[in-house]
Amino acid sequence: MTGRAGVRRWLLVAPATVLLLAAPACGRSEEPPRPASADGAPAATSAAAPTADAASSAPVDKPEPKACDLVTDQEAAALARLKLDPQKAGEQSCTWTAPISGPTGQVEVYVGDGAKKMLDIERQLGHELKTLSGIGDEAYLDTQANEAFVQKAGVWAAIRLVLLNDPKENHKPLEDLIRVVAGRL
Fold it and tell me: What is the residue range of the signal peptide feature (predicted)?
């Protein structure tokens, strides 16, 4: 049993032994029994349910809006100054694209962490961001990338416009629409 045959046998026996010993432990899914209280009912766990007082003192979070609820089909088409196909909703985004038979154009709306991340990326790239006063809690226009951002009550939203024109032509329409979006947040 020495030599190569002995080593091979041990290489097979050791993993098989581990599997045989570990398999029964994996099959256990039941919880350990809880001690009963004096009246015979199961004892309460240490994680108590919140009381009515605790629930009423905690702020109720407003659900994050859907991106497609922030901009209408007509507003997207007006921003792009094109006829656009129906919206396509994503988890935190909404996109309108121009038909493939016409000029290139697209409007994208994002809400939540993704919108904030877009702004962070534009900052890292060194894009010129113009502060938009009086819109939400804070708002910015990316003068190079045809994007506008707004934050209101901790919720971020962004609009991206894809057009093959001079970005300066889009500043005012983007600012106007991000103002509307801020009102809907």
Answer: 1-27
Classify residue 62: in a domain, yes or no.
no
Beta bridge partners of 142: 129, 147
> Is 41 a domain residue?
no
Residue 92: give the domain boundaries: 67-184
Residue 102 in tokens: 């016409």
Residue 56 sits at φ, ψ, to 5 deg, of -75, -25
Nearest by Cα to 151 from 120, 122, 111: 111
- The predicted-structure confidence for 125-164, as pLDDT tens digits, reads as follows 999 999 999 999 999 999 999 999 999 999 999 999 999 9
- Residue 90 counted as domain residue: yes
Q: What is the pTM of this model?
A: 0.67
- Residue 26 is assigned to a structural domain of this protein: no
